[in-house]
Amino acid sequence: MKNIEFYIKGLFRNIERTPEISDQIEELSCHIRDRVMDLCSSGMSEDDALEKTIQGLGNLDELIDTITGKKVRLPMNKINMIMTLAGTLYGALYLTFVTICMWEWYMGPPALYLTGSAFAGYVIPFVFSLIRFIMYPKKTFLLPLPSSKPVLVSLAGWILISVICIIANYFMYKALPLSNFWSWMPAAGVFTWPLMEGVLFFTAKKESTKAQNNDF
Asked: Quick check: 216 pLDDT over 60?
């Protein structure tokens, strides 16, 4: 079946043949050969069988990106739901401590008005992501492989913001010795950023490994 061999070579002519990619290509070749042989045995010509098999492969650019490891299909509705759930749980814990501090320092029960409404910022994104997941639990999106870069950027941003808040708190304390140690609040609140980026990365990484293991 020279036509199949020429087709495969042309499809991956500009792709570096690492051992992993070569294994994937060989697996795809076997799949195409088996499918063509089945169609030929039913009376179809080899050219027509190959054309029908190629059509059945779907989007070839997507297929190549998947085989070469550039992109992977991920269940982003599920991943986003897990990410926002993690943020909501952290937000509940964080705002509980904020409420206690503000209650004790000067506000009393009215502190609940502030922190209760702030909690909506955590809950509402989770509710929307949960609805999307319930409506489309198995929907996938072709995306680049998960990268740890956003996690590192968010950690750097969180550290920078925390340092700025601590320095500001220090000068405030020097000016007003009776002032409180308030800088932990914005520092802890902004930690939601690297937390959710981390959950997103590790969940997407797990799902991408699962998807790659299920290929072919």
From this structure: no
What region, left, alpha or beta, does residue 147 occupy, with left being phi > 0 and alpha being psi -120 to 50 degrees?
beta
Integer CA distances (angstroms), 171 to 146, 165, 190, in order:
41, 10, 21
Residue at 189: amino acid letter: G
Q: d(Cα 181, Cα 199) in Å, to the nearest integer?
A: 29
Q: Running DSSP on this structure, what letter comes out for residue 72?
A: E
Q: Provide the pLDDT for residue 124.
A: 95
Judged by DSSP in three states, 71 sits in strand
pLDDT, tens digit, 9 for 90 and up, residues 2-43: 566 666 666 666 565 666 667 767 777 787 788 888 888 888
Q: What separation in angstroms does the CA of 73 have from each of 24, 60, 67, 139, 147?
A: 16, 14, 11, 9, 15
Contacts of 72 (CB under 8 A, 6+ apart): 66, 142, 143, 145, 208, 211, 212
Task: Give the Cβ contact number of residue 66 at 10 Å.
Answer: 19
Q: Give the whole-angstrom CA distance, residue 144 versus residue 147.
A: 8
